[in-house]
Amino acid sequence: MLPMDVALPAKNFTCAYDPATGILRGHWAGPGAVATLPACYKQLLAVAQAHKDCRFWLLDMQHRDWHDESFARWFGECFAPQVSAALGQPVFIACVVRPGQRPQVEHMRTDLLLRLAAEVTIFPFYFDNVANATAWLRDQQAGDPPLASQLAAGYHSA
């Protein structure tokens, strides 16, 4: 299990709520230790709670190293249930990744994370650009198209 009390790398991660769109945005400016990820995600949850329990997150992960299996397990088993309990359901997370990360997104570890998160109606989807990720979140805010029609995909490219 990952340590839970790791300080945030201030130069590496930022998050902010955008009141114009109702979207919580997180951004990693560069690589960092996987052990810092839980602190980043806890900060996201705190900011979401401070802004009317925001359930629409856009995470720009293009400059971040891909996580390992311990993070995927922590996210699915510990964090996703905590988010669901705190914010209500469902929670939509649009993750923007660089093209070189697609093999990791399609790997079994990501499948495990997606299955565990879906059990508590947390839905991370992966995109290769911010515009498509934002459009998907706006569709989810509007309730159209139905999420069920998208569940098989998981990764959306331009």
Please render the helix and strand layout as text:
Layout: E1 13-18, E2 23-28, H1 37-50, E3 56-60, H2 69-87, E4 91-96, H3 102-105, H4 108-118, E5 122-127, H5 130-142, E6 155-156
Parallel strand pairs: 2-3, 3-4, 4-5, 5-6
Antiparallel strand pairs: 1-2
Helix pairs in contact: 1-2, 2-4
Features:
20% strand, alpha/beta, Protein-Tyrosine Phosphatase, Chain A, 158 residues, single chain, 39% helix
Distance between the termini: 35 Å
Fraction of helical residues: 25-40%
CATH structural architecture: Alpha-Beta Complex
Average pLDDT level? 81
Our Rg estimate from Cα atoms comes to: 14 Å
Order of helices and strands: EEHEHEHHEHE
The largest sheet is:
6 strands, mixed
The dominant shape is: globular
| Largest sheet strand order | 1-2-3-4-5-6
Class, according to the CATH hierarchy? Alpha Beta
CATH topology: Protein-Tyrosine Phosphatase, Chain A
How much of the polypeptide forms β-strand, as a percent range?
15-25%
Low-confidence stretches: 1-6, 151-155
Question: How many individual domains?
Answer: 1
Please report the total strand number as a whole number. Answer: 6
The helix tally amounts to 5
The class by helix and strand makeup works out as alpha/beta
